[in-house]
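Run log, item B.
One chain of 423 residues. Sequence copied directly from the ordering sheet:
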Amino acid sequence: MKIKRLLQLSSAVVLSLSSLLAISIPNALAAGDTCTWTGATNSNFSNAGNWSNCSSAAPVTGDNVVFDESSSSQFNLTDDLPSNTVLDNITFQGTGSSGFLINDTSPIELSGNITVGSGGNSQNISAVVDFTTNATMNIGNDGLSVGGIAIGSNTLTVVANGAGVTNSGALSGSGTVNLDMQANTNGEPFIQDGESPGFTGTINVLTGMLVLNQGQITPADLLSNAAGINISNGATLGLGGPGHPQTATIAEPITVGGSGVDSVGSPIGAISSSFGNSSGADITFSGSVTLTSNTTIYAGTDTTDSPHVTGLYTFNGPLGGNFTLQTSTGNLDVFSCNNTSATPDGSYSPSGTLISSGGESCPAGSKTGGSGGSSGSGSSSAPKTPDTGLALMAAHPLETLAISTGAAFTILVVARRLKAVKH
């Protein structure tokens, strides 16, 4: 009887799963339209007359949208689709008289990728782009500007195939951004203009440049809550801000090393600063910095940038990695209470000449590393505490209990034998 009921139950489960699959598979396989913008009627997304190959309607959730310069009569566009519309992919292509500007007061939600061609005109999305899943931005020669990027917990990969990306708004989310920004021999930039306290994820700069445009806000740390910025060998962390003398502090953890190339293929350091005509800007790295190779802060000039900052670079957070740190121009101060790098604490002129050693003020007993010297407060030495075994007891409580129990049992046995001998 029990076996019969079990078989009946199994059959019911199989039938339920079969029905569910029969319903879900066609929906999963159903692909959205690939709607191509024509602008035949006006500039509004919601007007079906502005689209071709779109089932005689405006785009809906799951549709791909294509903006072709060669077939459009409208370039300044308004996304007035319902706010719950989640488009799939956005593609910019073709060659025409102008690039596109897409305006929206609400975020544009995407479940796919963005592809930008090489028609010769830059493309611009003034709204925040909200990626609802892992996505890729493939950027051709046209380049792309966006009004903000939201990634949630997803991974966004940005690949430069000819030009870079400018994010004029905030970057938000807890996921990962991977930047592969080197096109041919040039290091294209991902420029972050907007202050982004809501980004708590990680940025990996594989090639090219991550430029934190500090000059937009005074003072500024655009990614102050980021879990970390990792600069690979061959890539660059750029700190810039045209025409704005700055006193910038970088608090997020940074891993950096090697050297990179700029947008015209010229070699630059793993960290590069260009604060316009600022000659006295000070940059402080207060977060942990880990060197993965000998590292130079590039602060010279090239054919495309304004004169770079020649001020002061201060590293007063933890500094690790058994490598050296120096500047091409501008002085360097390493005043870290936790310095395990190959650059001792002290003040340095460009190219690594030591001006003076030490200089940091650390709490008593907290100084780690930094063979260049330390303040008196960081070099105190207390008398050595006698080893009583208490530290072992605190660190190994189970072993201590076993030893104590064994000792007590031994004492008990000896006491009983002594008592028997007396009687």
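Observations after the first pass:
- The longest strand covers residues 202-213.
- Confidence is low (pLDDT under 50) at residues 1-29, 301-309, 371-403.
Flagged for discussion on Thursday.
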